[in-house]
Design goal:
Helix content is about 25%, strand content about 30%. It has about 350 residues and is of the alpha/beta class. The chain is globular. Keywords: CBS domain.
Length: about 350
């Protein structure tokens, strides 16, 4: 992702001369025409400007007269491989990244997408649960090792991080750890490093942080994820969001809708003041993915039993610097049999096989 893409944003009333200056100075070869709330209207390339000059337009004319209003764009959930394939298919050197609401969130260039960045940030995967709700499948197999498609859930999780440039993994185990050790070993076959920490007794969703070795990178945020989560979240953008906001911790959240199946009556005393038929309430719920600063990771004592909400609440009281990162990408917590069956179908359309 180009770090200077915001400089490529201009309004529809800006002059062609300004667009030309941006294209020349920022080396992005494109200017993005947006509304005041940053919704994409069109793009302008050097070729668009040359054609305008050949048609006799002045450089003082507004860019709205020459912009391409139907440009090739990419979703902000697209992976690097998908972006490269898109640009190669359309022979484009860059592509705007646009969210579901039409707002520009970035600009990816072919050069940047092909230059694979490597992240040394530790990735900590919680894989110690019993998977009780998936019995009898988990009677002889830890839940993260159940196969979705042709590989274990945990392998899919690890490979999704590898595709984003991460290579430094830690796995917390408890239930049937030998199966996980035997399958992944030290990560040699995947070209990464995998280390294990073992919970002798369950320490809660956050307690395993206290078991991490002293030699993990001490100056880098850690990404933590439940080992039964199947998702297409862009981990690079998640990490960048955390770092840019200098957060103590960032929690990924999902929007959850709950519809009350009855008409809701509001009143004062015995007088009805309003009636709402089957209202829908919307909440943000924990998605089981976090980015944690070293200060949060190091605050957990060895063998301390603590859940992640309690850990984050403690730091919220201290500094009020815990953020949430709403995700709209695919996300599935494989906790129940229905979820497991759904994952078997979804995996074929996610490009994660």
């Amino acid at each position: 992702m180009s770090h200077s893409w915001q400089k490529a944003l201009i309004s529809g009333s800006s002059s062609i001369k300004k667009a030309l200056r941006i294209i020349d100075s920022e080396a992005l070869r494109v200017a993005l025409v947006v509304t005041p709330d940053r919704k994409l209207l069109g793009i302008i390339t050097d070729g668009d400007i040359r054609r305008a000059l050949l048609d006799g337009l002045s450089l003082e004319e507004p860019v709205s007269k020459i912009m391409n209003t139907s440009p090739i764009i990419a979703s902000d959930s697209a992976t690097k491989d998908q972006l490269v394939a898109l640009m190669e298919k359309h022979q484009a050197l860059s592509v705007p990244i646009v969210g579901q609401d039409g707002v520009v969130t970035g600009l990816e260039t072919l050069h940047s997408a092909l230059s694979k960045k490597r992240y040394q940030n530790p990735v900590f995967i919680m894989a110690g649960g019993f998977g009780t709700r998936l019995k009898p499948l988990t009677d002889n197999c830890p839940k993260p090792m159940l196969k979705v498609g042709d590989k274990p859930i945990l392998e899919t999780v690890i490979k999704s991080f590898i595709a984003s440039g991460f290579n430094n993994f830690y796995i917390s185990t408890h239930y049937m750890p030998e199966q996980i050790h035997e399958h992944f070993k030290g990560g040699e076959e995947l070209g990464v490093s995998i280390f294990y920490v073992h919970e002798e007794s369950p320490l809660g969703t956050g307690g395993a942080l206290g078991l991490l070795p002293d030699n993990i990178p001490q100056n880098l945020p850690l990404i933590m994820i439940n080992g039964d989560v199947l998702t297409t979240v862009n981990f690079e953008r998640l990490l960048k969001f955390h770092e840019e906001n200098n957060a103590d911790a960032t929690m990924c959240v999902r929007e959850y809708d709950y519809q009350i199946p009855y008409g809701v009556i509001n009143g004062e005393g015995n007088r009805i003041t309003s009636m709402v038929e089957k209202p829908v309430h919307r909440f943000f719920v924990n998605a089981g993915i976090y980015v944690l600063s070293p200060r949060v990771v190091n605050s957990v004592e060895k063998n301390e039993r603590i859940d992640m909400p309690s850990l984050l609440e403690k730091h919220m009281r201290d500094r009020q610097n815990i953020l949430m990162f709403p995700i709209h990408e695919y996300w599935l917590d494989i906790g129940r049999m229905d979820d497991f069956k759904r994952a078997q179908v979804d995996i074929h359309t996610l490009g994660m096989e």
